[in-house]
Amino acid sequence: MKAKHFPIVLLIHLLSFQNVIAQTVYYDNDIKLYGIIDRTGKSILKPTFEEMTMFESGLSRFKKDNKWGLINEKGLIILKPEFETEYGFCKRGFNDGLISVEKGGKYGYYSEKGDLVIEHKFDWTEQFCEGIAWVKVSEKYSFINLKGKYITDKWFDDVKIIDGVTYGEDETPVYDKDGNYAQGLATRFYKIDKNGMVALAENQKYISDYKTYYVPYCDKFKKNPPNISAFRDEKKRAWGYKNNKNELIGDASYYYASNFNDGVALVIFKDKSKNSADGMAIINEKIEIIKVLDKKFQDGWGFANGLMQLKYLVSKPDDEIQKWEYVLVNSKGEIIKKMNRGVFPVPSGG
Fold it and tell me: Which residue(s) pair with 232 in the sheet?
């Protein structure tokens, strides 16, 4: 899905080891191009590109002259725009110094300097996990090292990566004692180490029962569940919060409640007599109000990376043409940037 121009801010956390303030992509409606700003509203990259996606793992995919490339949050181009589609870049970014990218229908790996390290020769690939990556060729899976060399001659029907350990899966037909096909498959899992050693795994049932994606990525990419999550009580037709033990915090009484980001969230009060919205406030994780927002503001959907976009009417309510001004506010409810030239943060893309 390509980036849309919704009046809502959705940012992404920058990885903790990167020493820059996380940024967001925005769209300038006047010149019809995309650029980058930081959470203070400072311009990092003036509107330059035809399309951009939100930052994921510190990278955004951008389109220029009908080709796609990668740019980081400092506004530095990592991969030049020479790729046919935005979907060919691994959204999880670099791992072990490499990223998987598709070109011409085949996948290869690039370094953080933008150099092609492993040629485009695979039908599908995944990011590296502890020095090993699985690759797919002709519906079979095998494993390569950081130099692109196969570490085993054996090919598998599937792959699982559990607790940082890589397993190949073999499915073989089952026959009865007379040699007749018994209409089933026997599944065996084999442990693969960095040196390509293949051994039958001891914990077959645990691996088989482990819930994961069809072809999973490294467990260390998984995000920890939040301590507090917003939920909607369908019986009360109201929003509230629960902790990670599924226990209710306070009362479900809001017209809307966002999830927490950087320790803050947005709640919209409920006018019980009309079952409608009645003002907004910023709260902390104790569900305490930090700031009640001016009622002129509308269309708040929550924080991301410490920022939220709101809008307010600058024309008269009965004017034939309605004009709105968009602002970015921080976690204290302070306006840090006016977006009055039709500049909208980009929520997502790709």
Answer: 239
